[in-house]
Amino acid sequence: MTTFENKPDIIPTFGICIQHLLNNINLKVNHTATNIIPSRPKWDLKIPIIRYDLHSSEKNQTCLNMFIIKFSEIKHDYHSFKFIYTDGSKKDNHDGSAAIMGRGALTERLPD
Question: pTM score > 0.85 for this model?
Answer without folding.
Answer: no
